[in-house]
TrEMBL record:
One Gene Ontology term of the molecular function aspect: alcohol dehydrogenase (NAD+) activity
PANTHER family assigned: ALCOHOL DEHYDROGENASE, ALCOHOL DEHYDROGENASE 4
Keyword annotations from UniProtKB, A to Z: NAD, Oxidoreductase
Organism annotation: Ramlibacter algicola
Signal peptide: none
Protein's name according to its UniProt entry: Iron-containing alcohol dehydrogenase
C-alpha cells in the first residue's frame, strides 16, 4: 500500500511574496500572527513582507530561538489567542516556520504541547481545528514550507516531531528574491539540509515512486547549484535552483527521513552549544551513507549517476569534498560536541521518528558507532 499526499498550494518565482496579502485574505485570514526571528525582524526581507501585508492587520511575534522550544511556542500561541488571530504567516528558515506551526497548533488546541508529539501518539490528536499557516521561506534548505511536521524542543530538552496533514502549510510562497542576501555560512548549512532531505527520503524504503523522482531531481539540483550559490550569493539562477531543491526535499518528507536526522534532532535539542540543524546534517551525512551502503547500494548508485559523482569515488566522499568546498566543519567535535553528550544522543536517536525509515535497521551499538564516526 502506498499513501501519497501533495496538499500545499505553492507560488514559486522571483516576486512571489507580493501575493501574500491577497492569498491570506482568500484563505480567510485578516489578522494573521506573523512569526519570525530576532535577526530577520531587523532586516530588509522582513520589512518587505510586512509592507506586502499592509492591507491586513498583522500581529508580530519575532522571538523565535534558533531551535524553537516549548516556551516560545506557548508565548506565540498566547499572543495568537489574546489578539484573536485567524491564521499564521511564518517568515524565515525552518525555525520560524516550525514555531509558526506550533503556534497555529497551540493557539487552537488545549495543552500540554507534549501530547501532540508523533512518538507519544499525538498524530490523531492534531485536528482540522488547527489554524491555517502560510509559509514564506527566507532560506533554501528547510522544506518546512511544504512539510507535515514541526520540530520543537520540549522543556525537558527532548526535540520531538509534531506531525499531521493538518500541520502542512496551506500556502507556500517561495520567492528566491528573499534569499539573495543570505550569508555564505547559512547558504552552505541550509543548502546541505536540502540535499540531505533529498538523499535520505530517496533512500527511505517506503514505496512512493513520485516522491523518489522528486528527491532524485532535488539532490541533483542541490549538488550542482549549492557551490554556485555559496560562491556568489547574487547568482539568481543558483538561488532559484536552491529554493527549488529545498522545496523538493520538503515534498518528499512523506517518505520519512533516516539516521542523519535521527542523530541531528537530539543534537539540536542541546542548549549549549547551540548547534545548527543543517550543519549537523552535513557533518553526519558521510558516516551514515557509509553505514547504509550495504542496504541501499542500487539507490546510492542511482544518486551517484544523477549527481555526477566522478568515477572511482562514492557518495560519502563526494559529500565530504562538498563540505570542504563550502567551508563546513569536518566533525561533531569541531562543533563542540563532547564524548559525555553521546549516550543521551544515542537514546534520542533510537526514539526519533526518522529511525524507522532508515534503509538499514539501527541498534544502540550502531548509533554509538555512527556518533563516534561523526566525532572524528
Ligand atoms: Zn532537515
Amino acid at each position: 500500500m502506498a499513501t501519497i499526499n501533495y496538499l500545499t498550494t505553492i507560488e514559486f518565482d522571483f516576486g512571489a511574496v507580493a501575493k501574500a496579502a491577497e492569498l491570506a485574505r482568500a484563505g480567510g485570514m485578516q489578522r494573521p500572527l506573523v512569526v519570525t526571528d530576532p535577526g530577520l525582524a531587523r532586516g530588509p526581507v522582513f520589512a518587505r513582507v510586512l509592507d506586502v501585508l499592509g492591507p491586513l492587520e498583522p500581529v508580530v511575534y519575532d522571538r523565535t530561538p534558533q531551535n524553537p522550544d516549548e516556551d516560545a511556542v506557548m508565548a506565540a500561541a498566547a499572543i495568537f489567542r489574546q489578539s484573536r488571530c485567524d491564521g499564521v504567516i511564518a517568515v524565515g528558515g525552518g525555525s520560524p516556520i516550525d514555531l509558526g506551526k506550533g503556534a497555529a497548533l497551540m493557539g487552537t488546541h488545549d495543552g500540554p504541547l507534549e501530547q501532540y508529539a508523533a512518538i507519544l501518539g499525538g498524530i490523531p490528536r492534531i485536528t482540522a481545528k488547527m489554524a491555517p499557516v502560510i509559509a514564506i521561506p527566507t532560506t533554501a534548505g528547510t522544506g518546512s514550507e511544504v512539510g507535515r511536521g514541526a520540530l520543537l524542543t520540549l522543556r525537558d530538552g527532548r526535540k520531538l516531531g509534531f506531525i499531521s496533514p493538518h500541520v502542512i502549510p496551506r500556502i507556500a510562497l517561495c520567492d528566491p528574491d528573499l534569499t539573495l542576501g543570505l550569508p555564505r555560512g547559512l547558504t552552505a548549512a541550509t543548502g546541505m539540509d536540502a540535499l540531505t532531505h533529498c538523499i535520505e527520503t530517496f533512500l527511505s524504503p517506503r514505496v512512493n515512486p513520485p516522491a523518489d523522482a522528486i528527491a532524485l531531481d532535488g539532490a541533483t539540483r542541490a549538488a550542482r547549484w549549492l557551490p554556485r550559490a555559496f560562491a556568489d550569493g547574487s547568482d539568481r539562477d543558483a538561488r532559484w535552483n536552491m529554493m527549488m531543491a529545498s522545496l523538493q526535499g520538503g515534498l518528499t518528507f512523506q517518505k520519512g527521513l533516516g539516521a542523519v536526522h535521527s542523530m541531528s534532532h537530539p543534537l539540536g535539542g542541546i542548549k549549549e552549544p547551540v548547534l545548527h540543524h543543517g550543519t549537523l546534517n552535513a557533518v553526519i551525512l558521510p558516516a551514515v551513507l557509509r553505514f547504509n551502503r550495504s542496504h541501499a547500494a542500487g539507490k546510492m548508485e542511482a544518486l551517484e549517476r544523477a549527481i555526477g559523482v566522478p568515477a572511482g569515488g562514492d557518495l560519502a566522499q563526494f559529500i565530504e569534498s562538498l563540505n570542504a568546498t563550502l567551508g563546513l566543519p569536518r566533525s561533531l567535535r569541531e562543533l563542540g560536541v563532547t564524548e559525555a553528550m553521546i549516550p543521551r544522543m544515542v537514546e534520542g536517536a533510537l526514539k526519533d521518528h526518522s529511525t524507522a525509515t532508515n534503509p538499514r535497521p539501527l541498534s544502540r551499538a550502531d548509533f554509538e558507532a555512527l556518533f563516534r564516526d561523526a566525532m572524528q
